[in-house]
Each structure stands twice: as structure tokens, then as C-alpha cells.
């Protein structure tokens, strides 16, 4: 049985104590025990330094502690940590919050890695640090070192393979998060690396849990992916079958309008999502650029289809617009599908590309097979009809007269015959 996160964390701490001598500190341990954070504040009034220690399991992709506020909107200074590219060390990333979005790296916050930092026992990452200017920050952010209940926040990321040496590296949205208060008076005294006790019953000391939540997922990102894949892989190809196989212009139009509505909603969600993550804020990734072009083409498709149908109803003649509409559709659908494969890596979930590939590999061949069978069947019917007519046999004799035959006059009250029906249909087309 796989060990729990808390068991891995505690086993590592027991094997590798972080300090040799205790210094005044306050300690926070998350309810899931996937994060331990200890803080020490030197009592030198002229100093702006503080010492801290963070420990988290290898099963956690990243951790963060927000100093000075209980929410992201409260302007906290965020100490974020995640595995290095080699997986043998820890990357520390001081960041600033600007609303409910991924915190942005702040290069003006100076943090020095101290002895004891790294991966221990192959189970736990530890970062011991000294921050020279973490007591106050822009926008009136500060730690009140005289407070016995200073507001703090924390968050942890779900397990993933994301590793980086870049302090600006982007991460997925938090899986668990919450707030707590910390006694900074208790943490003030002789400066040094604060101790995280190495025992199985480790609990918070000088810190009180306030709120806690877990299992958070970015529903906007999920809906964006579902709407786009459903439209480009499913609904739009189905609309082509409705027209080519079913022969219904009306239901083809309804199908395409519904698909456009889903694309519109998906595009709006994509825009909102892009502003929430550092990796997509500038709208300069391949997925976003291609997506913008696809959205423009989709609008053009809707307009072209409407114009062609309107002109055709008046003239009963095909238009050049129809050709453009058809070929633009042949470009837009494959381009939209291909862009799906760039979206999952941007969301730091490249493994989902395999699932998308499986769906595409099943749906598109089935779609093409139906069109192929329909084409072959239609050709066989036409060939058989031409063959019968060349032998003097008419499958639908009422649609034309044979040489030497005179069409009988139609009298009022006569029953509807195939000949009269054909004439009636021809007259009706004048009003379509």
C-alpha cells in the first residue's frame, strides 16, 4: 500500500532534522499534512530579515504561503516553492498577488537558500531560507511583528510532473488552500532557521487554522475544453452528414448555429482563463493565436452560409459563396481539432492529448466512411438509372415523354397523376 502524504513527510522529517538548535518560532502544519511552514523573526529592530523553513511531500507539485493576508485579494507576499528541474532541489519563488489569479514573480524580494535545502529521503522537499526584505512590500503590505494573530494564507498544488529552475515558472491552480493566523510575538527572538519537529504527531504551534478547502478544480478550463472538442470533433462533422447524407438544409443550419454558440461560450471562457495564468497572460502562445484565427473563420463561415442560402432561395442558382463556404469549412474543422492538441500542453496537462487522439481516431474515420459509402451508393444508383434509360426503360416515365407520345390534356376534376404531380411541383418551385 502506498504511504500517505503525511506519512512520507513525517518519515523524512524524522530521518533528517532541520536544525540542531531550537530558535523562537511559530509553526503551521496544513490539515492534510502536505505542507509544514515555520517562521522566525530576528528581534533586531533595525533588521527587515526573517528566517523560514518549508517542507512538502514529493507528491505535491508546489506549495505557497501568503504572508500578511488571509486571501489572494488581500495583497499577501507569497513564498512559493516547487521541485527543481533535476528533482533533487527546491526552487523558491517570491511572488505578489493581484486578485484571484496566479501570483506573479517579484524579483525585488531577496531570498537566500540556507543549509538543509533539498530533497531528503526521496520523500520530502525542504527549503530553508533567509529573506532580507519580507516584512513589508508595495501596496501597503506588511507583517505586524507585534501581532499574536497575523493573517496568513496557504495553498498546495496537485501532484504533477511539473519541475523548473525558473522562479517565474507557471503552475497549475491550487488543489487545496486555506487561511490561518500566526503568533509573530512567539516567533520573535534570536535569529536562525526555525525548527520543524521530527515526530509523528506534528501539529501547528503558534498558528491557528481559520479556513480550509480541498479538491478545487478550474471548471472554466474544463468547460472550455469540453465545448471546443465537442464542437469540432462532433457537432460540426455531424452537421455535414445532416446536409450531405440527410439532405436537410434546415437542420444543417440549426446544427451549425448551435455549434457556433458553443464555440462562442468556449472562446469567452478561454479568454478568461488566459488572464488567470502567467503562461497565457500575453496571448502569445500557439494555442491562443491559432484559436483567434479559428474564431474569426467560424464567424465568416456563419455569415457565408447565411448569405448563400438567402441568395439561393431567390435565384435557385448556386453561388460562388457556396464554394468558399465549403472550402473554408474544410480548413476550419481540421485546424480547430489540431489546436486542441496545443491546448492541453498549455494547461500543463499534455497527457490528455492521448485521450483526444483516441477520440479523433475513432470519430473522423467513421465520419469519412459514412461519406464514402454515401458517395458510392449514389454513384451506383446513377449508373443503374443511366443504364436503364439507355435500354429504353424509364424508371420514372412521368418526368418526361417518349418520342412520338403526346401528353394527354388534363381536365378539371381529373385525379392527380404522376404527370400532374410533376407539373405541380414545377409550378411550386417558382414561389420558393
Automatic annotation (TrEMBL):
Query: Could you name the Gene Ontology cellular component terms for this entry?
Result: membrane
Q: Which CDD domains match?
A: CDH_like_cytochrome, Cyt_b561_FRRS1_like
**Which Pfam families is this protein grouped with?**
CDH-cyt, Cytochrom_B561
Per UniProt, residues of the Cytochrome b561 domain are: 223-344
Its subcellular locations are: Membrane
Q: Which SUPFAM superfamilies match?
A: CBD9-like
Signal peptide span per the entry?
Answer: 1-21
**What coarse category fits the chief subcellular location reported for this protein?**
membrane
The UniProt entry, under InterPro entries, shows:
Cellobiose_DH-like_cyt, Cyt_b561/ferric_Rdtase_TM
Q: Region Disordered: what ranges?
A: 390-411
UniProt KW DNA damage keyword: no
Alphabetically ordered keywords of this record: Electron transport, Membrane, Signal, Transmembrane, Transmembrane helix, Transport
Q: Which PANTHER family match?
A: CYTOCHROME B561 DOMAIN-CONTAINING PROTEIN-RELATED, DEHYDROGENASE, PUTATIVE (AFU_ORTHOLOGUE AFUA_8G05805)-RELATED
This one is known as Cytochrome b561 domain-containing protein
**Organism per entry:** Xylaria flabelliformis
